C-alpha cells in the first residue's frame, strides 16, 4: 500500500466497522431496555426528515488518458446531497458533485474512439435511497454531467454504509457507479457526514 489514499481509506474503513459494532450493540441493548411510551412516539414523529450530506471523494475513470496513453485515473471531487426521508427506510433527494481537475479521456471504441477533455465537470442527480439494514442504504438515480466541452446524461447506482454518532449526525461512506450515456463510466468513493436539519 504505497499510495497514502489507500492507507487512509483502510484506516477509515477499519474505524467505521469497529465503531459500527459498538453502535449496533448499544442500539440492541437500548431497544431491549426501553418501553416506548406515547411521548417517545410523539418525539419520533416530530423528528426532522431533511438531511444534508457533504463528502470528500475520488472518482475513478478507467478510460482516462495521461500523456497520450490510456490509463486508469483517479480524480478528487466534492459531493453534496439533500435527502427528504419519506419513511424511516425510504428517502428521495438531489445529489451534486464536482471533479476539481481537468482531465482527458477516451470516448468510443475502435476506429470511432476519440480523446476529449473534461473541465471541472459538475453532476446533478435525482436519487432514491432505501435502507436495507440499519446501517446500509442502497441508492439509484439519474441526471446529467455538465462541463463546458459537453453534457452527458447519467445513471447512478450505489451503496451508502453509515454510522450514527448522534441523533442528528451520521458518518457515511458512498460507493457509487456512474454510467455516462454514450460517453464513459466511473465509480466514486466518498467519505463524509450527514446532518439532519
Quick summary:
With 197 residues, this protein is an alpha+beta fold.
Keywords:
signal, 197 residues, 2 domains, elongated, Porin, alpha+beta, 10 strands
Can you describe what's shown?
It is a single chain. With 197 residues, the protein is of the alpha+beta class. The protein folds into 2 domains: 1-46; 48-196, Porin (Beta Barrel). Helices cover 20% and strands 60% of the residues. The protein is built from 2 helices and 10 strands, in the order ααββββββββββ. An 8-stranded antiparallel β-barrel has the order 1-2-3-6-7-8-9-10. The two termini are 38 Å apart. 22% of the residues are buried. Mean pLDDT is 84; it is low at 19-43.
Largest sheet: number of strands, sense, barrel closure: 8 strands, antiparallel, barrel
Principal-axis shape equals elongated
Query: How do the strands line up in the largest sheet?
Result: 1-2-3-6-7-8-9-10
The portion of residues forming beta strands comes to over 45%
What is the rounded distance between the termini?
Answer: 38 Å
What is the architecture of the largest domain at the second tier of CATH?
A: Beta Barrel
Radius of gyration: 19 Å
**What is the averaged pLDDT score?**
84
Number of helices: 2
Number of domains: 2
Question: What is the fold-level CATH name, i.e. the topology of the largest domain?
Answer: Porin
**Secondary-structure element pattern, one letter each:** HHEEEEEEEEEE
Low-pLDDT parts are 19-43
Structural class: alpha+beta
Supply the CATH class of the largest domain: Mainly Beta
Signal peptide: 1-25
Keywords: Signal
Protein name: Outer membrane protein beta-barrel domain-containing protein
Amino acid at each position: 500500500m504505497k499510495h497514502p489514499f489507500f492507507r487512509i481509506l483502510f484506516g477509515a474503513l477499519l474505524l467505521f466497522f469497529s465503531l459500527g459494532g459498538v453502535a449496533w450493540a448499544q442500539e440492541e441493548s437500548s431497544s431491549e431496555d426501553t418501553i416506548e411510551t406515547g411521548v417517545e412516539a410523539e418525539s419520533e414523529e416530530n423528528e426532522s426528515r431533511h438531511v444534508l450530506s457533504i463528502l470528500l471523494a475520488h472518482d475513478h475513470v478507467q478510460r482516462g488518458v495521461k500523456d497520450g496513453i490510456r490509463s486508469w485515473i483517479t480524480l478528487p471531487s466534492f459531493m453534496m446531497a439533500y435527502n427528504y426521508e419519506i419513511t424511516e427506510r425510504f428517502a428521495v433527494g438531489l445529489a451534486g458533485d464536482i471533479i476539481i481537475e481537468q482531465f482527458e479521456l477516451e470516448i468510443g471504441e475502435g476506429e470511432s474512439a476519440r480523446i476529449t477533455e473534461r473541465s471541472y465537470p459538475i453532476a446533478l442527480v435525482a436519487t432514491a435511497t432505501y435502507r436495507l439494514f440499519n446501517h446500509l442504504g442502497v441508492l439509484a438515480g439519474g441526471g446529467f454531467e455538465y462541463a463546458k466541452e459537453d453534457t452527458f446524461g447519467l445513471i447512478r447506482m450505489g451503496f451508502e454504509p453509515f454510522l450514527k454518532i448522534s441523533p442528528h449526525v451520521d458518518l457515511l461512506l458512498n460507493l457509487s457507479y456512474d454510467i455516462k450515456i454514450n460517453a464513459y463510466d466511473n465509480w466514486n468513493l466518498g467519505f463524509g457526514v450527514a446532518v439532519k436539519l
